[in-house]
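Table S5 (text form). Sequence records supplied for joint modeling of the two-component complex.
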Amino acid sequence: MRQFWYFFKNGIVGENPVLRLMIGICSVLAVSVKVENCLAMGAAVIFVLTCSSMVISSMRKIIPNQVRIPIFIVVISTFTTIVDLVMKAYLPPLSKAMGIFIPLIVVNCIIMARAEAFASKRPILPSIADALGMGVGYTLVITAIGVVRELFGYGSLLSVRIFPENYQNMMFMILPPGAFLLIGVYIGLLNHFSRRKSK
Amino acid sequence: MKSIFKISLTLAIICAIAAAALAAVNQMTQKVIAINSQKELQESLKIIYPQAERFEQIGITSTTPESPTENKEFTLLDLYQAFQGNDTIGYVFKVGSKGYGGQIVFLIAVSTQNNTMIGIKVLEHQETPGLGSEITSPRFQNQFKEKSLSDHFEINQDIQAISGATISSRAVIRACQGVVTYLEKERGQ
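The corresponding structure-token record, covering 388 residues in total, follows.
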């Protein structure tokens, strides 16, 4: 159990996919304009990541080394398509807002990287812990970026108006540079606090 | 040789399992998705043209009417006739127009009684979230309300484009021009 928490926490702080491993950035830039998109994207990534890590880890002994990458892709894309179809059927408004980015989870390098570096080498339980940690870490960062971008870019949070009606939207926050800048600020903050802690 | 056979067999089996799982999920969701889109279409028609009591789908004479500018990348998908009682009060066009991230599908309602546009409503799009996706916002769409069809729908004169999303705005405007041309042609014949 302690090991479970260790791998879980590793994904959130120690090896946060966005802030430390710097992978999966493109979906962060694209989706993080609104908080509700961030939460939906996070949920979709957590689901796909956990399911594919679980399946890949349980099959790790029968997957031939030569064709492991195609097999990972088949597994990941199966789960992504399931999410896409289920969202289309039961959450049509959200599915519309996310547009192309749900199918693009297939090529999100976080999932591929965790399958290759972690799930294909370890038993199921640590793999699930790692996947959940990575997924939650991704969701936390993307939401933290989304909160700032939506607040300053649209003057609202979760589509609820926060700033007065005549607030001039900050275009810069809606455009990708806003996200790049925020990622940089968060990396700096994370480094600052983890360094202070180790001293 | 034996190992190649074994490798491909493993891959094939895994692909087959994945295909079976997807077929099952598709089977379950297909109906719901179809019902959703049908319901959404009926609701959209009602929202876009509240005065109409019922709609009837009618045939299109030509699927790619020419718009005066940029006639490419624009298609008429469906045409609905709007009725109030037994009188035709207008039409709703379902059109596709090429935007920044692919085809934008939306409805354009026009009134034949006073020759104005009733409004537009976007059904499907893959535009950039936060920029191009603003074509769905009321602020952009309200510009099309009560617009006379004799206007030319010029960008930034009749219709203010969304800043940072000129291509998406242009796609919507292009379709409006196309619809106007189509109606003019129909009337001419």
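Note: The CA atoms of residues 56 and 62 of chain A lie 10 Å apart.
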